[in-house]
Amino acid sequence: MTSRNSSAGETGASSKATIALCLAIALLEGLDLQSAGVAGPRMAKEFHLAVAQMGWAFSAGAIGLLPGAALGGRLADRFGRKRVLMWSVALFGLFSLATTMVWNFESLLVARLLTGLGLGAAMPNLIALCSEAAGPQQRSTAVGAMYCGMPFGAAIAAVIGMLGTGDASWRHVFYVGGLGPIVMVPLLGVFLRESQQFVATQASKAKEGAPSVAQALWREGRARTTIALWISYLGTLIVLYFLMNWLPSMVLARGLTRVQSNLVLMLFNIGGGIGAVAIATIMDRFGRRGTVIGMYIGIVAALTVLAGAGGAGSTAVGGLLCGFFIVGGQSVLYALAGHAYPTEVRGTGVGAAVAVGRLGSILGPLVAGQLFALGQSPSMLVGSSIPLVVIAAFAALSVVGAFKQRSALGAQGA
Q1: Strand, helix or coil at 280?
Q2: Where are the domains of the chain?
Q3: What is the CATH number of domain 10-190+211-413?
Q4: How far apart are CA 45 and CA 34, in angstroms?
Q5: CA-to-CA distance for 172 and 94, rounded, in angstroms?
Q6: Which Gene3D superfamilies does the UniProt entry name for this protein (predicted)?
Q7: Is the pLDDT at 209 greater than 80, yes or no?
Q8: Tens-place pLDDT, residues 302-322
Q9: Does the pLDDT value for residue 1 go beyond 60?
Q10: Whose C-alpha in 81, 160, 167, 409 is 20 to 30 A from the C-alpha of 225?
Q11: Torsion-angle region of residue 299: left (phi > 0), alpha (psi -120 to 50) or beta?
């Protein structure tokens, strides 16, 4: 009953409105995720935080992302994408504002943890809504168009960091990151339409019962895809969040100025926004396998450029290329997850993949902080990321291979 519904997306104004609203939420989410990296050096000065403590401060929000993504995805399949998204947006808006009122290291950790819970719950719903708003041939482009808001929001956070010159002005980025989501909640209530594919599955669920988590992830030939998605998300997100949180500090460690570090961060995120749309569009037009291979070759090349950079110009180019390929590559992985699971379990499947990937967003900043505390150079840290990228590439290619195998079996059955 659901296969026909899951093969066709919404059309016209409703589809465009869904993608536009999801883009706006992704932009605010990107701003908030980057805010800790932008505010980090000044927070460290105000609260007298050691480098290792800053690693924990960066990772606290990421720790909240993990249960948030798993719970948000599962609830989306039970109560609807729209309703869960609205609660998620309200949660991360309120606790982003709460970050401006922290008074010590412990209160900072609590505020960032709860902010991360809301941020994590939002992403599976954004992916599901955009995947179901577009037809199969435009699904990657729709998810990429949404996800480009993440790096552009992070670029806005970098601009706010550049404009705030005082030591206490680090709070400005959290004011913007908190008020924006709170304003968006009533707009979502009025203008966002619930996924029609999700609505269509409800009658089937009422008769047959909702699929369990084990059914969603492991049965009907999805075990291989699920494991490979988890590995690809984990490896890629370790590198992405390491750069998102530590890139400003790495640039400063090379002797560049604070303005230059924020400029490199801004270019990283602008490159990511362009890459999110460009690479996803290429995948829709030219196929998955070649796009995934080219994408990961680009990631390795970009990391090599950044590791070998010395002056401001070469560091800026390395940051731009890393953003284009790493952030753009993550949008492709999100699109692959949207393809991998049928409508009735899409939230659960995508949420689980995002949750496992969030382990990378915890490990990346935390391990990098410990290595920095031991005196390791930025170039060594960037170079050591390359083996993880290679592992993630093989896992992503395995996902693509599973799609091909499933299509071949479907053709034989027909």
Answers
A1: helix
A2: 10-190+211-413
A3: 1.20.1250.20
A4: 18
A5: 15
A6: MFS general substrate transporter like domains
A7: no
A8: 999 988 887 888 889 999 999
A9: no
A10: 81
A11: alpha
Q: How far apart are CA 207 and CA 342, in angstroms?
A: 18
| Residues 344-372 pLDDT 10s | 899 999 999 999 988 887 787 777 777 77
Dist. CA 410–CA 414, nearest whole Å: 6
What single letter denotes the amino acid at residue 18? T
Confidence (pTM): 0.83
Residue type, 284: D
Q: Which of 84, 117, 405, 147 is nearest to 273 (CA)?
A: 147
Counting every residue, how long is the chain? Answer: 414
360 token code pair: 């990378």
For the chain, the 3-state helix, strand and coil shares in percent, each to the nearest 5, are 90, 0, 10
Extract the tokens encoding 89.
């947006």
**Residue labelled with tokens 């084990």:** 214
Q: Would you call 299 helix, strand, or coil by DSSP?
A: helix
pLDDT of res. 413? 46
CA 45 vs CA 35, 60, 109, 314: distances in Å: 16, 19, 16, 29
Here the tokens at position 209 are 């019962």
For residue 207, pLDDT beyond 50: yes
- Compute how many other C-beta atoms are within 10 angstroms of the C-beta atom of residue 179: 14
Q: Which amino acid is at 255?
A: G
Whose CA is closest to 232, among 110, 92, 332, 151? 332
Q: How far is CA 30 from CA 146, 224, 282, 289, in A?
A: 11, 30, 23, 28
Please name the residue that has the structure tokens 């948000």.
72
Assigned token pair, 93: 């808006």
* Measured distance CA(261)–CA(4) in Å, rounded: 50
Contact 117, 93 (CB under 8 A): no
